[in-house]
Design goal:
By secondary structure, this protein is of the alpha/beta class. The protein folds into three domains: about 150 residues, no CATH class; about 130 residues, Response regulator (Rossmann fold, 3-Layer(aba) Sandwich), CATH 3.40.50; about 150 residues, Response regulator (Rossmann fold, 3-Layer(aba) Sandwich). It is built from 19 helices and 16 strands. The strands form five sheets. The protein has a five-stranded parallel β-sheet with strand order 2-1-3-4-5, with helices on both faces. It has a five-stranded parallel β-sheet with strand order 7-6-8-11-12, with helices on both faces. It is globular. The chain starts with a helix and ends in an 8-residue tail after the last helix.
């Protein structure tokens, strides 16, 4: 590490290969519903159109294709004729029993996840409580909003890709713990909208449209848990890449309902990570004091503005908004940063107190992680005033500044940027104006630039 600090020019960041992320997708969904529900979804709901519009609005690609069936024979025929990535079953007053039917499907197609999407009512809740759910992966409430279908799809895609994406580039994880079907059916779509809106904002760090779309693959993933053991297993597995935790209070622990399971979970996580953001949601305001004791944020489920409060809390704690450098002594905002260039500009003007406060709490690295700047975030996460080679705060500022410059250069090298006057990057080696062909000379220069990027040794030279 000493060598790195003495000569920041020799620091090498391997650029993130966003094209290798999110390899596993859900393309085909079999939707098994009664004839009336099928008609409602197809004619009144226009489910394919709504999902397509939702994907387009959020700048997402690859919307899934839905195939509607209303009978067991028709469903099995579809499963034999086409490969499906997900089965969604909607029970009704007809003869459809999704729980028994799922057992038969799982025995033949054990790798296809099965989700039950049911109207919310007390009678349905009682029925589910008495059913054998061994063949069902998840149960959600259908509230008439197609957002839930997008959330289910993305949740399963996150589950399919998380291990590979975390290990390869360090993609971040948000842990969501909740066992109330009605509540998580409402909250999960909201969480994904927050994440997608965040990814739309950080994609502008890329220099052209293709790079922007690929960059969205580096968004934080949401992992969903319904029991204490499931939540703790996920946390321990991904704790080094955990952006934050959102938890209910009362859920199963050791097979029995524990009214303090969420509090115990967050306490244990806080013991292992001093600064990770913890958000506790509960209908019992008596849990607020316990939450504040481990420096978490408490949100009441009874609040009429819960969704807005949750969005604001996530934005402020998970690094989803502009970075506000706060003076810990006065609480005043010293500087507000919107992008990496802005962070570079304020490094030397911040007070010592503000810089130490945010570096010590890993706020800067968390902000960078949430924007998919993984190599730089990892480097700064492991950089502090106590490291060998950093004698004082001025040296720390130089290291942070130098690392940002180095990262911006390697990120932009080999990329043909689209020139835009209002956000031109001085470290962009190659920019084009207009849509025409670059021609032989320009293409040759761009090729040499990309070859330099692939050779680590050449990065040592300016």
């Amino acid at each position: 590490m000493n060598t790195i600090y003495r000569n920041i020019k020799q620091l090498y960041f391997k650029d993130t290969s966003f094209a290798d992320l999110m390899k596993h997708r859900i393309y085909n969904i079999l939707l098994y519903a009664s004839k009336y529900d099928s008609f409602m979804l197809e004619e009144d709901g226009r489910i394919d159109e709504q999902i397509f519009n939702e994907y387009t609005a959020l700048n997402l690609r690859y919307p899934p294709r839905f195939t509607l069936v209303s009978g067991e024979e028709e469903a099995y025929a579809q499963l034999r004729d086409r490969a499906y990535d997900l089965i969604i079953s909607m029970p009704s007053g007809d003869s459809i029993n999704p729980f028994e039917w799922a057992k038969g499907v799982k025995s033949v197609y054990p790798d296809i996840p099965i989700v039950v999407l049911t109207p919310f009512s007390k009678s349905v809740s009682k029925r589910i409580a008495n059913e054998d759910l061994s063949a069902i992966d998840y149960v959600f409430s259908w509230l008439g909003n197609p957002d839930i279908l997008l959330a289910i799809t993305k949740m399963l895609e996150d589950k399919m890709n998380v291990e590979e994406d975390v290990s390869s580039v360090g993609v971040q994880v948000i842990l969501f713990v909740e066992d109330s079907i009605h509540f998580y059916s409402s909250i999960l779509p909201h969480l994904y909208k927050c994440v997608f809106q965040q990814s739309k904002s950080f994609m502008t760090e890329a220099l052209n449209e293709h790079e922007q779309m690929l960059r969205m693959r580096g968004r934080p993933k949401i992992l969903f848990a319904r029991t204490y053991e499931e939540a703790m297993t996920l946390y321990l597995k991904y704790k080094d890449n955990m952006l934050g935790v959102i938890s209910d209070v009362s859920f199963l622990r050791n097979g029995e309902r524990n009214r303090q399971a969420g509090i115990d979970l967050c306490r244990e996580i806080r013991r292992m990570d001093k600064y990770i953001p913890l958000i506790v949601q509960s209908s019992d305001n008596g849990n607020k004091e316990a939450t504040e004791a481990f420096k978490g944020t408490f949100l009441s489920k009874n609040s009429k503005t819960l969704l807005k409060e949750l969005k604001d809390t996530i934005n402020n704690n998970f690094g989803f908004t502009d970075f506000n450098f706060i003076n810990p002594a006065t609480g005043e905002v010293e500087a507000r940063v919107r992008n990496l260039r802005g962070l570079q500009d304020v490094v030397f003007s911040l007070s010592d107190e503000s810089l130490l406060y945010h570096v010590g709490r890993y706020d800067i690295s968390r902000w960078l992680y949430s924007r998919a700047m993984f190599p730089l975030a990892e480097f700064l996460k492991n950089t502090n005033i106590y490291d060998p080679g950093i004698e004082d705060l001025n040296k720390l500022r130089q290291v942070i500044f130098g690392a940002i410059v180095k990262y911006r250069k390697i990120k932009n090298r080999g990329v043909v940027a689209v020139f835009q006057r209002d956000r031109f990057d001085q470290y962009s080696n190659f920019a084009r104006i207009g849509e025409g062909s670059m021609g032989g000379k320009g293409r040759g220069l761009a090729f040499i630039d990309s070859m330099i990027k692939r050779n680590e040794q050449l990065q040592q030279y300016e």
